[in-house]
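Internal ticket #5521
Category: modeling
Description: The requester needs a full-assembly model to guide mutagenesis choices. All entity lines are attached below as received. Residue total reported by intake: 999.
Assigned to: D.W.
Attached entities:
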Amino acid sequence: MPYDEALERFEPVLGLETHVELGTESKMFCGCPTEFGAPPNTHVCPVCLALPGSLPVANAEAIESTIRIGLALNCTIAEWCRFARKNYFYPDMPKNYQISQYDEPLCTDGYLDVVVDGETVRIEIERVHLEEDTGKSTHVGGATGRIHGADYSIVDYNRAGIPLVEIVTKPIPGTDRLAPEVARAYVTELREVMRALGVSDVRMEEGSLRCDVNVSLMPRGASEWGTRSETKNVNSLRSVERAVRGEIERQAAILADGGRIVQETRHFHEDTGRTTSGRSKEEAQDYRYFPEPDLLPMAPDREWVASLKADLPELPSVRRGRLQAEWGVSDLDMAAMHNADAIDLVEATVAAGAPAADARKWWMGELARRANEAGKPLAELPITPAEVARVTELVSSGALNDKLARQVLEGVLAGEGSPDDVVAKRGLQVVNDEGELLAIIDKVLAENADAADKVRSGKVAAAGALVGGVMKASRGKADAARARELILEKLGVS
Amino acid sequence: MTELLHKTAAELGRLIAAREVSAVEVTQAHLDRIAEVEPKVNAFLHVDPETTLAQARAVDERIAGGERLGPLAGVPVAHKDVFTTTDMPTTAGSKILEGWRPPYDATVTSRLREAGLVILGKTNLDEFAMGSSTENSAYGPTRNPWDLSRIPGGSSGGSSAAVAAYEAPLSTGTDTGGSIRQPAAVTGIVGMKPTYGGSSRYGLIAFASSLDTPGPFARNVLDAALLHEAFSGHDVMDSTSIHAHVPPVVEAARQADIAGLRVGVVKEFGGEGYQPGVLARFHEAVELLESLGAKVVEVSCPSFGYALPAYYLIAPSECSSNLARFDAMRYGLRVGDDGTRSAEEVMSMTRAAGFGPEVKRRIMLGTYALSSGYYDAYYGQAQKVRTLISRDFDAAFHQVDVLVSPTTPTTAFPIGERADDPMAMYLADLCTIPTNLAGNAAISVPCGLADEDGLPVGLQIMAPVLGDDRCYRVGAAVEKALEDRWGGSLLTKAPALEGLGYQHG
């Protein structure tokens, strides 16, 4: 069913479960390194391979990071809590249980505010808990890349035991047609919070941030929520948005036909933007949770928690508010910079000496256009904020005008060196020698006697053509404003 | 060389340190003894004379080089086959781990090595330490040196039999519900369950994580204390290991003075189900304690009656999860992997073929007890009972310094008698289980022979958490008084030992 029609008939309720791999040096319960991309099964030991007799020892830094995440999300930090075993058999899980947390998570009852379409939406957080990642299975042969139908499977245990924080929202009603955007904004904001805290590199493409999207629909005006589906494998911000949209359309079509939504896990497909059915939760296993007897309970000291809270860095939303005030830009411009991931770049450019308005103008204008052409994020353009700041300096000193500045940026992006190198190599310089400029003006006036007469007779607007002539004759190097002044002076109308 | 066999571990250590005898000679004497009696006793799953003698030679070289090692350097020890060892296979008595060579040493193993002990081999046990008779071993039962038709206790039956048969002066065990104390009692030797967390579980193949405790076996209390001290103490690899010094167990074993000590007799242990000969020796031991200057009172621990059912919910629950890792994916047995079956099918076929009936029974019990909808009624309730038992101990130790009871309700039963009756088998641990649930310390020392069968009876001495030294102090006092009365250790009265070719000194 088309999205608009679906929204006319149904209201969506969202829920998001996000897994964040922490960037600790070592794994959650052993000393193995966590570095991504090592040859398979080289970051393993008796503990993370679950050899008989091995025992876990909890990573203190991971516990601290989880508490800091909880504090940044305005959660209550448990005074006493435990790890629990989640029991199920799967070849990539060495112990055939995952050490996780069950009914005693480290952090509960928080929130995160996100801004969508100028509106602030408060996303309530149910819990933040700490667990360990599984190994990574690769299913070889078969059509789907899933375990069923594969010829054989291979497992890399390097990832097994990497600390994983799970952040679960409460159900999010009332987002209406903005549900996809709210979901995306939430994951975006969460990612920025993680970056600000420095607890994870949150790279969705490497799986260090993974998102499960829960969607249910209820008929407009109903008070009881519908049955939800849980979509896994949502591995980019754009996919989060598409997965929500796709699920709303799929579920609406089923419900409109009088069908029933099955509570199940679904898999998201990047290529089609659609989901397909995974295992049904109705036949789901019983995880037989019980408190992990190999680890002691955690009882975070209150003073320590208070000091962690006091030492939290400035959070992204607070920082954006501060920068907006400092830069004096509108909500709309700020939102545009946020969406373009330009805030850090603008801030760094300002720090390198550029006026905020100029920094924003170049990043959101010429450079955004070039990034778009190249199909790259802004931050991946081969130019530094300091170089952009230098360009703005050259413009404000009058050495360059905007047209020349664009050529300088082009040169820097093309790898021709620093802005000053490009200026020198390309000979890009506003003509500052008044003698040279006056000679050009004389020549232009002589060649355009008609226009000169019009100006003399009071039609000042005709001066534009003369300025254009000067700019053309100087190949853009003339200072247009000064040229105009001199022309008017010469023609006796200043 | 047989005179070396009946020396104590402490004496052997002294002789080796003084270079009056070499570690190699002592080791060879025990290896010869093992070769002689193993066909009848079956205490060992793995003996490798070459590896063992190489260890002994290394100790002799260290001593010759002037290195000062611990009091047990060069003394042989039999090691329960549930601790990982890099130089010997480790099976936990199960087919599912047959031939597995661990790439790492258990902390207990590496501490034995650091102290210069010579590992003679790996001893038999009930599969994954689940049982009270060693009949659940996948590699055949071990026999009691007192009567080869009877069980040596379990699960550490290989370790108790090896020490009782003079195959080793010392051995290691693990005690989850009585698996050190009960085998010690029925083979007439000393066995100690330290405070939970006092000895490291790293490299001990888990049965029930919250209960498993490594501990020593020896033929006398001082030797047990020396071994206890050698491998205990905090270990960073075990999160449940206690940050505390090892209690002064060796000093306590030498002290052996109990004048003024307050001793509590647990009212709930005794009566129906207890063999008269066991109770008779127990009551004599209590009188003996009184004659040695202890003040004896009766103490009630009303929740102890619920300990056995609570244990049989908690231990199977933990084991159902701990044993999930034996899935044919990374190590051990693999059955059915013919290229047509799924990983799930191979896991299932391997576990069906690799685990014995008692292990399967406990995995099923535990899986059921942890199931959604049953958790509160079973596992949750059992944890509450566990708290009540700890409170009973706390209240009791408010009144007395130690508690005493028979170690087991009966003497060693015949092999096969209880094999098909799990409930009867479980009752062997009736008196030992409360201590595991509360995590405190307890020892079993020999206190005589039952009149009706002439088999050894054990006295259990229980002490508070980290009060391990009290067990040794009382145990040593009882041992001294009884050996004076008997004119030597209880083992000198073991008739079958002569049948095993052992000449009492």
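Resolution: model delivered.
Comment from assignee: The radius of gyration of chain B is 21 Å.
Ticket closed.
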